[in-house]
Amino acid sequence: MTSIDLNADLGESFGQWILGDDDAMLGLVSSANVACGFHAGDPSTLRATTERAATSGVAIGAQVSYPDLRGFGRRFVDIEPSALTDDVLYQVGALEALCRVAGTRVRYVKPHGALYNATRTHTAQARAVVEAVRAYDPALPVLGLPGSELLRVAEEAGLRAVPEFFVDRGYTPEGGLVSRREPGALLDDAGAAADRLVRMLDEGVVRAVDGTDVSVRAESACVHGDSPGAVAMAQQVRDALARAGVEITAFAP
After folding, report:
1. How far is it, in rounded angstroms, from Cα 108 to Cα 129?
2. Of 28, 31, 93, 240, which one is least surrounded by beta carbons within 10 A?
3. Whole-prediction pTM value?
4. The CATH number of the domain where 93 resides is what?
5. Residue 253 included in any domain
6. What value does the mean pLDDT take over residues 232-246?
7. Which residues of 73-86 are buried (b: 16+ CB within 10 A; e: fewer)?
8. Count of the separate structural domains present in the chain
9. What is the mean pLDDT of the chain?
10. C-alpha span between 72 and 65 (Å, rounded)
C-alpha cells in the first residue's frame, strides 16, 4: 500500500471544557471525525472545528453517536432502529449546516464509541445507521471496523464501506477492540504504535493482546485526538509512514 488516510476524533470540547488539541491534530491528519453534539461538541466548537478543517484541507466526517453526553457516547443504548436512523440523520444534517457555512461538506460517516462497537455485531443497529446514510446521501462512505456488520450491510446497500485500523487501541484475538475497561485497551508508546501501523500495511496483520496475529486490512488509520500524547503519537505515525514511503491521503477528498 502506497497511501493511507489518517483520521482523528475532533470537535469534542464542550463549552469551557477543552478536550484535545484540535489545531495541532488538524495539521497532522487527512480526515477529521467531527463530533455532532450527541456525545460531545457544542455548536460553537463544531463550527470552529469545521472552519479550521476546511482551511487546513482536511476532509470532514460526521461522527455520529447515541444521545449520551454524560457518558461521552461510550454506553450502549438499546434504541429502536427507526429512532437510531432519525438520530443519525439529525446529526449528519446539523454538521452539514456548519460545514456549508465553512465552505465545505460532510464527506463520510463514522459511528462513535459504543455505537461503533455495537455495529460490529448488532445487525439491526448497523442497518439503522446505514439506512440514515443511504437516505441522506448514498454517495457518502461509511467508516468502520473490518469484518463488522456495519461494513457488510453498507456494501449490501450499495454504499462505499471503508475499513479502519486503530493505531492506539488494543485488538482482541477476534479482531475487535479491547474494552476500555480492560488492560491493553490503549497504547501509549507512540513508536510502537507507529511501527504496528507500518506492519499492518506491509503484512496485513496486527498483534492482538493475547500475542496472536490478527488479519487486518484498512484504508484509514485512526489516532484518537483525546488520548494523552495524541499529537506526539500522530507526528510519530506520520514520520513512520514517510520512512516507509507511504503517502497520507484522505480516502474521501
Report:
1. 12
2. 93
3. 0.95
4. 3.20.20.370
5. no
6. 93
7. bbeebebebeebbb
8. 1
9. 95
10. 9
Q: 3-state class of 52 per DSSP?
A: helix
At residue 126's C-alpha, the angle toward residues 222 and 124, to 5°, is 155
The count of C-alpha atoms lying within 13 angstroms of the C-alpha of 240, restricted to the half-sphere facing its C-beta, is 22
Q: Is residue 180 part of a domain?
A: yes
Pairing mode, strands 213-215 and 205-207: antiparallel
What's the average model confidence in pLDDT over 12-16?
Answer: 96
What is the residue whose three cell numbers read 457555512? 101
pLDDT digits (tens, 9 = 90+) for 79-116: 999 999 999 999 999 999 999 999 999 999 999 999 99
Rounded CA-CA distance 182/179 in Å is: 5
Q: Are 196 and 167 in contact (CB under 8 A)?
A: yes
**How far is CA 103 from its chain centroid?**
22
Q: Is there a domain that residue 108 lies in?
A: yes
- For residues 206 and 164, is the Cβ–Cβ distance under 8 A? no
Alpha-carbon Rg for the chain in angstroms: 17
Extract the C-alpha cell encoding 190.
507512540
Q: What would the grid cell of residue 173 be?
A: 484475538
* Res 1: pLDDT: 65
- For residue 146, being part of any structural domain is answered with yes
Query: What is the spatial distance between Cα 105 and Cα 92, in angstroms, rounded to a whole number?
Result: 10
pLDDT in tens, 191-230: 888 899 999 999 999 999 999 999 999 999 999 877 778 8
- Grid coordinates representing 155 are 456494501
How does DSSP assign 228-249, residue by residue? TTHHHHHHHHHHHHHHTTPEE-
- Distance in angstroms (rounded) separating the CA atoms of residues 226 and 220: 18
**DSSP tag of 17:** B
Q: How far apart are CA 175 and CA 10, in angstroms?
A: 25
Q: Which three cell numbers stand for residue 24?
A: 495541532
Helix (H) or strand (E) holding 143: strand 142-144
